[in-house]
Amino acid sequence: xxxxxxxxxxxxxxxxxxxxxxxxxxxxxxxxxxxxxxxxxxxxxxxxxxxxxxxxxxxxxxxxxxxxxxxxxxxxxxxxxxxxxxxxxxxxxxxxxxxxxxxxxxxxxxxxxxxxxxxxxxxxxxxxxxxxxxxxxxxxxxxxxxxxxxxxxxxxxxxxxxxxxxxxxxxxxxxxxxxxxxxxxxxxxxxxxxxxxxxxxxxxxxxxxxxxxxxxxxxxxxxxxxxxxxxxxxxxxxxxxxxxxxxxxxxxxxxxxxxxxxxxxxxxx
Length: 269
Prior knowledge:
alpha/beta
């Protein structure tokens, strides 16, 4: 075998690698339409000693360096049809295996979804629909009167990486004011993007919608806490498509109880 599909989640592989893609891969590598998991690899490592290419997606198993050397002595690269590779990549890289990710392509639907939620939030969709079902038409109508809409509203973007930048670019057509917190964003790049750099506290003070796109690492864990959430404007909305660990979950739950006017849209927890 020159190439294999490797994944713990058998439901994911062929939703990412559809029939057309598999057909192309078979022409290039003669790969079989069979999914292996880590147990398969470890039970018969000799079967995989000639494997040069691994194709995977969400559910890629983790291997130690010794396991990689013992099971995949010929492995040259891993193609990961999803976003971040932090959970599994380091041992492969240390063994000289190249790891390729679809993180740039994966950023597109995340950014599209985020922008759609921002536009709805500015129009008061989430607050008014909630009030309509819990308190009736009159309460929803009164809340709607306070909604400014999109024109001239202020949005806060936390993290101007691949997804954050794409969200900023897509928001330009709506004539919004965009604030950004990102210590690595230069003044020149901020000017090019047409955004205003600021600190987190100011961003939470001023933005009607706060959208998190921070990178996932030790420095960002628990960064978004009660002290920030309590600063949010009346009827404001927090969107998290970053990582759940960046939010102090109990703090967010607490502020949502204290401030039922606020909305949290959580793609991750």
